[in-house]
Amino acid sequence: MPKKKVLVTGGAGFIGGNFVHYMVNQYPDYDIYNLDALTYAGDLLKHRAIKHNENYHFIHADIVDRAKMISLFERERFDFVLHFAAESHVDRSINEPSLFLQTNIMGTQALLDAALKVGVEKFVHISTDEVYGELDFDATLLFSESTPIQPNSPYSASKAASDFIVQAYHRTFGLPMNITRCSNNYGPYQYPEKLIPLTILSAYQEKSIPVYGNGCNVRDWLHVYDHCTAIDKILHEGVNGDVYNIGGHNERTNIEVVKTILSSLSKPETLIEFVEDRLGHDKRYAIDPTKLEQLGWTPKYSFEKGIEETVQWYLCHREWWEPLLLEKHIQN
């Protein structure tokens, strides 16, 4: 039986990079192709340990280049496509929305055209719970797969549009697919512009930690390893055409997250600096992952265990994050 060929777009980024590691180790009989444009948030340093593995391959390309995507798919004839590649930082989408529309919408369409042309076995589109909009501070309210789509930022609007395009290719052309919508991720190799790594590194260096508004916005946190196992489950067992929410049952306010990290590092809360709230800042996200759990998936990490391991990971991997702090992209 020939090896399965698996394309992971955005495999030099945070979630995609962790998924590449997971798949290379979990499925030695699969050939894993990491396709990435290597923009500011992507790096190959995270893949040093696997770069010589026989089942790991890197392709430097931009998903927006439709002709290149079609040529690549025709040459390699991928069996599975896991589409992580996206511009994903909400603040950047407010400042430069056109980039998000180009990459997240047109890039997705280019991949869909290529996938349809060669007849892939499944296209898994990695999306976000932010497409649902926001919830009130009522613990009984959760996002389900039937929650209406109501994005509030240029980022989430671009992801919602790409979700609809993927669904349209399934319903119109019969492309086998799943869409996953995850809650906020954290863990190793997360670019230090996001809340958790920014807080860890700022606290470690005893620099001020910016917190939007009053810090009471709520997010449902998911360790990236649990996200990887969930996508694996959906890739192999998900019902064709279905959407699956992925959440870790770990709701926390932003200020609780920051204080947990400060406590873990034995740093004072006086490092916290409340700043003007983000434009259109959603109040609360919370995922109901029941549908996915019915496939047999359960998260491994509690928030407390996951945060402790994540803090220790950053403390032990200065060679990865220190060069990033020298770049102009990180306002630390």
Q: How would you briefly describe this protein structure?
A:
The protein is α/β, with parallel strands linked by helices. Helices cover 40% and strands 18% of the residues.
Describe it for me?
The chain is an alpha/beta fold and 332 residues long. The protein folds into two domains: 4-185 and 221-246, NAD(P)-binding Rossmann-like Domain (Rossmann fold), CATH 3.40.50; 190-218 and 251-283 and 302-325, UDP-galactose 4-epimerase, domain 1. 40% of the residues lie in helices and 18% in strands. The chain contains eleven helices and twelve strands. It has helices at 14-26, 66-76, 90-95, 97-118, 154-173, 195-204, 224-237, 254-264, 290-293, 303-316, 318-325, and strands at 4-9, 30-36, 56-60, 80-83, 122-128, 177-182, 184-186, 209-212, 218-223, 243-246, 251-253, 272-275. The strands form three sheets. Strands 3-2-1-4-5-6-10 form a seven-stranded parallel sheet, with helices on both faces. The longest helix has 22 residues, at 97-118. The N and C termini lie far apart (51 Å). The mean pLDDT is 94. Belongs to the NAD(P)-dependent epimerase/dehydratase family. dTDP-glucose dehydratase subfamily. Keywords: Lyase, NAD. It is an enzyme of class 4 (lyase). Residues 7-310 form the NAD(P)-binding domain. GO terms for molecular function: dTDP-glucose 4,6-dehydratase activity.
